[in-house]
Design a protein that fits this description.
- The chain folds into three domains: about 120 residues, HUPs (Rossmann fold); about 110 residues, Serine Threonine Protein Phosphatase 5, Tetratricopeptide repeat; about 170 residues, DNA Cyclobutane Dipyrimidine Photolyase, subunit A, domain 3.
- About 45% of the residues lie in helices and about 5% in strands.
- The protein contains 19 helices and three strands.
- A three-stranded mixed β-sheet has the order 1-2-3, with helices on one face.
- Helix 14 crosses helix 16.
- It is globular.
- It starts with 5 loop residues before the first strand and ends with a helix.
- The protein binds a DNA duplex through helix 14 and helix 19.
- Keywords: Chromophore, FAD, Flavoprotein, Lyase.
- Pfam families: DNA_photolyase (PF00875), FAD_binding_7 (PF03441).
DNA sequence: TATAAGTTCGA
DNA sequence: CGAACTTAT
């Protein structure tokens, strides 16, 4: 058995916005926001070290957080991490007791009431394991998924033995779409069973409808370690390929970030380093409007307001708002990624940053740059009756049915469009032309 | 996990 | 004439 190493990342949440988070913080002061596999702590070569350094630096510097490390290892890299991140933001709680239950208990006691025990990585297959025959990592999702399936994984551990000990969020209520669903393994399993026996059958199309409840709502549980993906995978049937693929995407992006930790902040496709962004005062104001859900595009605004209200956003809408920020407002993708990480209850560095890169066209296996979402037609297609928009945009509650998507038929108190989509679409295509090398 | 513009085809 | 399909971006 590998010795447990416990790390977590602490960032400054605006706790006043989230009474449930506040209660959890009251219980233990800190929240375990980022948990690493202890194998990454072993001196096993530069790639692992780089992963550790860069993830932590990314989190600390880009997200305004604090790092807190507790461990029993004489791990030689800890001082280096401290040096990288800078004095004052790293607290190391050294504990030299032998590994085992006693040491776990001592560490836990030293760190407060949070039940933080970590076992194993939160992936079916540990990042870095699935490789091409020549040893190189996969850069395209579909072959990765095939190899990942072929690789296989252990059966899930029994409840209460493995996954339940992973991380605990006792007392933490996750403020997501389903109000009042609590944290913890038991709650995660109940959400899973509800989904498995219901919306999963219609997942292919149902997951794209933000006006309905067709997604699994498991993202926060997976991200916080309340449930292990192997538990879900073991429960899936041959017909559930789409949901299995969503889990595969999660593993794929973890693998990509493991191999290239710098891509948490930098373009995976370096050709995009030359891409022209808008970052001046006007762009900052548009970015602000986007953050607040005041762009004048109904689905975009509904999504951004759902994010602020619930710390969660429907996946289809995430794609729409991301496309809008990058391709209609021409803002760097990492601005949007950072905003998401600050607000999403399920925000995961690998999935978040690489899905943003996918939308921006600069990532692994990215969407072709010319795939530009039309925020109006996306709204009409996936929120056909306008129910989603009306739920989150009070100014539009008086507008009937699909009319909420008609920009020229919206009430005066609703913001005018910050930009003209057709024009900005062309601007984006022209800027892409400028960096193309074909 | 796209869109817009153009083309084909049948009612 | 609109739905379905094709194609360039």
């Amino acid at each position: 058995m590998t010795p447990p190493a416990i790390m977590w990342f602490r960032r400054d949440l605006r706790l006043s916005d989230h009474p449930a988070l506040l209660a959890a913080a009251d219980a233990g002061e800190v929240l375990p926001l980022f948990v690493l596999d202890d194998r990454l702590l072993k001196p096993a070569g530069e790639p692992r070290r780089r992963f550790l350094y860069d993830c932590l630096r990314a989190l600390d510097h880009d997200l305004g957080g604090r790092l807190h490390i507790a461990h029993g290892d004489p791990v030689d890299i800890v001082p280096k991490i401290a040096g990288k991140i800078g004095a004052g933001s790293v607290h190391v709680s050294a504990d030299t007791a032998p590994y085992g239950r006693e040491r776990d208990e001592r560490v836990q006691k030293a760190l407060g009431d949070i039940d933080f025990v970590r076992i194993g990585s939160p992936y079916a297959v540990t990042p870095g394991r699935v490789r091409k025959q020549d040893g190189e990592p996969y850069r395209v999702f579909t072959p990765f998924r095939r190899a990942w399936l072929d690789h296989g994984w252990r059966k899930p551990a029994k409840s209460g033995v493995d996954s339940a000990r992973w991380i605990s969020l006792k007392g933490l209520k996750i403020p997501a779409a389903k109000s009042d669903y609590p944290a913890g393994e038991q709650a995660a399993l109940e959400v899973w069973q509800d989904f498995r026996d219901g919306p999963l059958a219609d997942y292919d199309t149902g997951r794209d409808r933000p006006d309905r409840d067709g997604t699994s709502h498991l993202s926060a549980y997976l991200r916080w370690g309340c449930v292990h993906p192997r538990t879900l995978l073991a429960d899936l049937k041959p017909g559930n390929e789409t949901f299995r693929s969503e889990l595969a995407w999660r593993e794929f992006y973890a693998d990509v970030l493991w191999h290239q930790p710098n891509t948490a902040r930098e373009n995976y496709d370096r050709k995009f380093d030359r891409f022209k962004h808008d970052t001046g005062k006007a762009a900052q104001q548009r970015f602000q409007a986007w953050c607040e859900g005041k762009t004048g595009y109904p689905v975009v605004d509904a999504g951004m307001r759902q994010l602020l209200a619930e710390n969660w956003m429907h996946n289809r809408v995430r794609m729409i708002v991301a496309s809008f920020l990058v391709k209609d407002l021409h803002v760097p993708w990492w601005w949007g990624a950072r905003h998401f990480m600050r607000h999403l209850i399920d925000g995961d560095l690998a999935s978040n940053q690489h899905n943003w890169q996918w939308v921006a066209g600069c990532g692994t296996d990215a969407a072709p740059y010319f795939r530009i979402f039309n925020p109006i037609t996306q709204g009409e297609k996936f929120d056909p009756n306008g129910d989603y928009v009306r739920k989150y945009v009070p100014e539009l509650r008086g507008v009937q049915g699909k009319t909420v998507h008609k920009l020229d038929k919206l009430p005066e108190e609703y913001p005018a469009p910050v930009v003209d989509h057709a024009h900005e679409r062309q601007v984006s295509l022209d800027r892409y032309d400028a960096i193309r090398t074909t």
